[in-house]
Amino acid sequence: MSAAWQFYRNTTLGQCLEDSLDEMIQSNQITPAAKQQLLLHFDKAMSTSLAQRARNKVNFKGKIKIYRYCDNVWTFLMTNTEFRDAAEGFHADKVKIVACDGGKQQETAVGKS
Asked: Which are the contacts of 52, defined by CB distance < 8 A and separation ≥ 6?
C-alpha cells in the first residue's frame, strides 16, 4: 500500500490506535509485524468506510496560501476559510486539506493487503 493512503493514521483515531499498538508491543502482547498488519487493515477500512458511507457535500471558500500535488496527493494550506453544508456553516482561520485522487488508483492501492 502506498504511503499516500496512510494519511488516516494522522487522525486522532489513527494516532490513538498506533499508541495502543505500541503499548501492546511493549508489553509483548503483539509483535511489530502484527502492528503493521493491523495498521494496513486500518488504512483499508478507513478508505473503504469513507468511500461507502460519507455522502454529505461541503462547500468551502478561502484564501489558498500554499498548494502542492505530489504522488497523487493534493495538499492545500488555506486561511480565512468558510465551510458550508446544506444546514450550517463555520469559519476557520487556518486549514490544511489533504486529498488523494480517487478512482482506479485508490481501488488498486486499497485492494493490496
From this structure: none
| pTM of the model as a whole | 0.60
Which single residue is written with the C-alpha cell 489513527? 14
pLDDT in tens, 95-112: 999 887 765 544 434 444
| DSSP calls for the chain | --GGGGGGGGSHHHHHHHHHHHHHHHTTSS-HHHHHHHHHHHHHHHHHHHHHH-----EEEEEEEEEEEETTEEEEEEEEEEEE-SS-EEEEEEEEEEEE--THHHHHHHH--
